[in-house]
User: Fold these one by one.
Assistant:
Number 1:
Amino acid sequence: MNRQRVITWSLMLGAIFPDSDVVREFFSHNPMLMLTWHRSITHSLLCLPIWTVILAGLTRVVVKWRKWEATSFIALCGIWAIGILSHIFLDVLTTFGTMIWSPLEWSRPAWDVLFIVDFTFTAIVLIPQLVAWIYEEPKQIKWRALLLWLVFLPAPFLVAKIGKNVGAPISDATILAAIVLLTALFLLPVVRGGGLRVGYVNWNRAGLVVAVGYIVAAGYAHHVAFERVQAFTAEQNLQVETIGALPLPPSLWHWDGLVRAPRGVYEVRMDLSEGFFQAMKPGAESFEPKVIEHTYYPDALPNQWIDEARQLPEVQKVLWFARFPVTRFHKEGDEAVVEFSDLRFPHMQPGRAASFTYRVRFSSNGSVIAKGWMGR
């Protein structure tokens, strides 16, 4: 374990460290921790100096104990800080929200540039590292390349399935293009050892450059999508409480515009590729679509059951977390059912509730029979 490996491991573990907060969920039966605890103090910019000092100190202790070569304590603090900051930055880019100012403030900033699990961005970051691994050992490149190609080959079909479920279908041409690209990345450089002429570091540098480019492109796409949502609110003359343009898998072209109004949530599904390719045609004058189609999700009319459900501590936490909440109510025999959904999270199947839906069931005498997340 030389100095460079200590630095590499410290940087990698620093990038992983913020999600160590999920360990608490393994030892707790509190279903609200995902909302109130995850992405809080371990993702906090205010707590960052504390974590870097503690983790750098532990690293020095381990290095001294194992008699490994290591860098200075100050340098280790900087390395751990870079790793943790990279995680926080990428989390803030997503739609889930990250409590970067905790414990001073428990708000959840979210820049809505990347989907919570962005498959395209993940592939851009991961594949160059795997390709570099293929050519690390010249005698093993053939079986390594074939192994990774076989592992990744089903990925485009899986992503297409997920995209279809959330209302952002991916065309067969796109699936075919992804397969061809994976084949080119994993297998073509093996021919005559072409991949060996690209250094290990250069593969990773190329991945970093493309990843940064993708974030910039996604940021611009978010800007275009948000302008369309604003145009929709102006067209409908809506009283806006909350507004956002959220990415859908694979997230660069597909966006979900959401507007919280006093009586419900308006949703505008967008495919930016249509407007983009239309604008590329000769004589095109506008990037904007002529008609903005939307879906409206009204809140249930107020009643005593909804009022009682809102008084529950768990429901108050759900409503604190939700950016685009919708309240539903229905009767099942003598029982009353109240549901609170956050439309920020896509509908996995038509006719089903959004992924984050909390349900409260009352008996005819007004007592709570059951409460909890749907589907869990």
Note: Residues 299-373 form one domain.
Number 2:
Amino acid sequence: MSKKTKPAKPPKLGPGRLSADEAAKLPDRLLSAALHQFAANGYANTTMEQIARAAGASTKTIYSRHPNKAAILTAGVQRVVENVLAAHAAAQRTDPRAVTPREFLVSLGGQIARALGSGEGATLIYLALSEARRFPELAALYNAVIGEGTGRFRAALEGWKAAGLLPDLEDPAAAARLCVSMLTDAARVRSALGQPMTPAEIDAHVGLAAEIFLRGCGYRARHA
């Protein structure tokens, strides 16, 4: 009686032998693994080898895409920023001239507060506030994220001032920094304390902060 031939096992997909689908998912998988390791172990105690292992990749694979921890964290930050802007764009038109100032501030401010108050955004806030003194690159990344948001608010404020909507606004750059602070500081602090705000709390806070800020700039809603 002849022996039964065992079916051939599918080839194991290791580094350099990923399927097309897995290769497409690899960049996000690496970033997710890195941010998870940073959250669990801290920036200082996380190694590239740990990240690669958590992502199911080789160290050669991760180093071919990110030369060091700072680079992979930078990529993670960029992903958070892109997700915030995508969510804002999906919620409404991103051109400040197409919506009321309050609608724009509440939409973008709310998206930033939600992104930095939970998930990967919360991890970035925690790392920046807890380890930036030891690792200047964390402070630089934190400032870059805040600067990105501040720049978008400043552009909107300048447009509204030119249109005569903010008669009491004198310094758009300083006002933009204050606006970001008013809209998002509470969510950032609560996140760093491990007591994140609920979506309802964020909505209520951002709405009130936007109204107070605009009132201070002399804004009065135009009624038809």
Note: The CA atoms of residues 87 and 111 lie 7 Å apart.
Number 3:
Amino acid sequence: MKPLSQNVARADDLSALTNTVIGAVSGLILGKERQVRLALACLLARGHLLIEDLPGMGKTTLAHGLARALGLGFRRIQFTSDLLPADILGVSIYQPETRDFRFHPGPVFTQLLLADELNRATPKTQGALLEAMEERQVTSDGVTHALPEPFFVVATQNPRHQIGTYPLPESQLDRFLMRIDMGYPDRSAERELLKGRDRRELLDSLSPVLDGARLAALQHAVNQIHAADALLDYVQDLIAASRRSARFTHGLSPRAGLALLGAARAWALLAGRNMVLPEDVQAVAPSVMAHRLPPAEGGVSVGVLVTDLIHSVPIP
């Protein structure tokens, strides 16, 4: 694999790298290029991703594929009702020979953590991830342990109506930069899936497309994508509209505004541009905003409400 030149800062060069990743992962998740693109934008913006959908829709395969294509260390935790925080974070065990306690890291100490079926664990266990997701560290017995760099959480969640699920608290939801769903494949993609090779075999044959240096360069490049004052006006108008709307119990926080801008920058990079356009904001806004805006009344999809909100705000 060729080293990434320090001079490779052109948006189209960086876009070519990301398109290679998208193509590799899309070969596993047929007919879901947009979801793959959103997931990659989320990770390039240094955010965490929540995927909500029915079992068997490819959520776990997407997480595995991203880890393989990005060359990241990968661990998976199956969340259940009897899972304890120590099963995630690790535990200090007494060492008789040294007469002290030694911390044994849990599976959270990896670069890409798949938190599978996160909402099947109790709220206490769900909350064990909060410090790790926000501070990228774990504190045990008063000692802080840094997590690997980079560190991403890709969590899957079953629909809330399913038996044995606990709703994620708002503080937990807010730690996810994006929430996406997979959806059913169209007929042609499903036919190709039925006729093709087993997804696990394809996953085993997937080689890394990036290494740590290239991934770090892409993340740095996202931060350099230009956002003009007029674009910032548009982001602020969306935030203000969410706070004025009576259709939500509360509006977007300042952190949500930063998340929206960061995701839009990543989307612009994937498109091969060095500046953010309003179309980039609109492309990522539903995935960034919907899980942060509780509807004031039931019966209407929050996705529909967020789409209506976006359409109600004129582009400057």
Note: Residues 1-8 have pLDDT under 50 and may be disordered.
Number 4:
Amino acid sequence: MYQANQTLNYKPINFFLLTFLFTYVTWFIAVYISYQPSLELLFPFILIGMAGPSIAALFMLIRTKNKNMWVDFYQRLQPSKIRITFIPFIFLFIPFMVICAIAVSLLLGLSTKGFSFAQLPSDQALGNMGLIAILFVIIFSCSLEEIGWRGYGIESLKSKFNFWNTSIIFAFLWSLWHVPAFFIRNGYFQQEVWQLGFVQTIVYFATLFSLTFLINWAYVKNNRSILVAIFMHTMSNFSVALFHIEPVTKIVLMIFLFIAAAIVVTKDKELFFKN
């Protein structure tokens, strides 16, 4: 059973306030830039905003006088934390869920276009990049998030709550953290979701909740490996970028991920519900 180290002096309120302040200021600047004639600074500000969690985590670690927190943080970044038997799940589970959702969509009458590779519009922030370049950008951006989220955020919440409440609270905060991205014109993903309407926006946030439980579970099962969270987050974002995922397919994917998260919680009740 996962127990947060009670000797480590985590301050979740300070961390999340600092994270939201940095990201919101940066991304609302990106919102302003996105409506200007020149978009040269748009992508840099989007990327800087993604670094909010990591910047907040490093700031909190620098301010602490507890050296054990630095040791714990450094150890959780080591590849040796990852269990070899978990590697297929880490890299293949979410892409497999996406492919299954597309396959089910075919049974619902959608075209085979879902299995073709997507090409981002040229006016989007990543639109002029090739697939490999987009992959590296996604790895980098997910690293900027997860070094903060699992490096400090999850641990800080777990020092106050059980793992179920930690996951619920984090999923809610993670959803709120994405809100400014919906208003960035010519951004990447959230603006597209927003344009699809209310239902798809709800589907997006519901999917974030399921992903939170799945990534948190894999994170803990791999000795609190931050790298596991980075890889799973990367595979999630890259799978969405790789395929043409229709609105109906997103709903099917949401259901699949919800079922998977429910199975994980049901099978590992001790992890999630015991203090």
Note: The radius of gyration is 19 Å.
